[in-house]
Amino acid sequence: MVQLLAADGTRTPHAELDAVLEESGLATPERLRGYYRDMVMIRGADLEATNLQRQGQLGLWASALGQEAAQIGAGHASREQDYLVPTYREHGVAWARGIEPWRLLELFRGISHGGWDPNELRTHPYMIVLGSQAPHAVGYAMGLQRDGVVGTGDLSTDAAVLALFGDGASSEGEVAESFTFAASFQAPVVFYTQNNQWAISVPTQVQSRVPLAQRSRGWGIPSVRVDGNDVLAVLGAVRTALDSARDGRGPVFVEALTYRMAAHTTSDDASRYRPAAEEEEWAAKDPILRLRRHLAQLDEIDEQFVARCDEEAHDLAMQLHHHIHGMEDPDPVHMFDHPYAEPHPIVDAERAEYLEYIAQFEDDPSADTATSEEGRA
Ligand SMILES: Cc1ncc(C[n+]2csc(CCOP(=O)(O)OP(=O)(O)O)c2C)c(N)n1
Ligand SMILES: [Mg+2]
User: Fold this and answer.
1) Residue 235 scores a pLDDT above 90
2) Catalytic residue positions?
3) 9 belongs to a structural domain
4) Residue with the nearest Cα to atom 4 of ligand 1?
5) Using CA positions, which residue lies closest to atom 3 of ligand 1?
6) Is the domain of 191 the same as that of 295?
7) I need a surface site. Which of 25, 52, 164, 323 has the fewest CB within 10 A?
8) Minimal CA–CA distance to 72: which of 260, 229, 292?
9) In the prediction, which pLDDT does 377 show?
10) Inside any domain, residue 369
11) Is ligand 1 within 6 A of the CB of residue 169?
């Protein structure tokens, strides 16, 4: 496993990745402070989202607590021209790509159909059906090849795709099929698994008899396993993999070892299936704390900066709170507006049927009068 930052923040040299980080400028002290702030901000938004779900304001929330380095690192390792294909727990990746957290919350409130413009931010909508995004990602990557923006020798314009999925999703047939297409066509795609140790209540050991990173090798897809709680290792490994893919050298698989610190979603109670000792063990490997310790060792962080990040995260949480609490309920009939770009007879029929159905619940003014008169009598 590649690790550049130990849990106590100590930096281990790594010839290959250090060269990539140096050349890319991704690991300057200023950048590192930026990643620290990013992680604190997204954790603040995440905790507030859980609160909002408990207040009945969101239908569900899938927390990314503990996965901040794996996500902020991968998001920032991508270049602007890359296309990212996320799953549903990618809040740090979304943040790094410029997707405002309120858009994520609106999705989990169930009032937004997609959340953002995938072309504008070059980030696909969240995907809940496990593994389904892997073939989309490979197809997109093959499209990039055909557009002539792969392997031209210019890394600043050549593009690649980052396909994100979980350890559990990696067992889906679609992922195996995606490996086949990606390898056969040498598609510019990086498969990125955040192995957060659990797929709801199923531990990773049940998914695979070998480390997940080894799986792709049977397809001839090179792979690397990194410490996913180490933002520097993630940045270095994902940037290296994406640059290799964009350079026309085919797909790469990156497994980031991390931990889902919260329950699977707000509908889950993790204490039913995993021991508290395991949670404590991983709490000691907290990715935010680790980067803070590293910055302290470099003498590149002070108490004011830490306090300012905490304040900003608090302000963001309050903004999200007010935004969500202040939302009007959307007209339910809007759900029929976007399944197809153009009018569709089946959707039209369903809309008409639904309108008829909800009309039954509209208040009948004459019935109201009768009730109130009865009340007076
Ligand atoms: C095809 C499919 N099967 C089952 C589910 C239900 N489901 C949602 S999340 C999940 C576990 C996924 O675990 P993993 O891929 O490790 O991602 P994580 O939730 O840990 O981020 C399951 C089984 C689903 N969404 N899609
Ligand atoms: Mg998982």
Assistant:
1) yes
2) 260, 264, 273
3) no
4) 130
5) 130
6) yes
7) 25
8) 229
9) 36
10) yes
11) yes
Residue whose CA is closest, atom 7 of ligand 1? 130
My answer on whether 359 and 300 are in the same domain is no
Q: Supply the pLDDT for residue 374.
A: 45
Tell me if 41 is assigned to some domain. Answer: yes
Separation of CA 198 and ligand 2 centre (Å): 4
Write out the two tokens for 184: 């056969």
Point out the ligand 1 atom lying closest to the alpha carbon of residue 265.
Answer: 19
Instruction: Assess whether the C-beta atom of 261 lies below 6 angstroms from ligand 1.
Output: no
pLDDT digits (tens, 9 = 90+) for 322-359: 999 999 988 889 889 988 989 999 999 999 999 999 99
Q: Please indicate whether residue 166, judged by its CB atom, sits closer than 6 Å to ligand 1.
A: yes
CA distances from 219 to 130, 166, 180, 276, 296 (A): 21, 19, 7, 38, 43
The reply to whether 225 and 140 lie within a common domain is yes
Reference 46, options 58, 59, 63, 34; nearest CA is 63
346: containing domain? 332-376
At which of 325, 343, 360 does a domain end? 325
C-beta 128 within 6 A of ligand 1: yes
Give a yes or no: residue 2 inside a domain.
no
Closest atom of ligand 1 to CA, residue 88: 21
**Residues 8, 239, 74, 181: is their CA dihedral positive or negative?**
negative
Residues 178, 130: contact at Cβ < 8 Å?
no
- Are 269 and 340 in the same domain? no
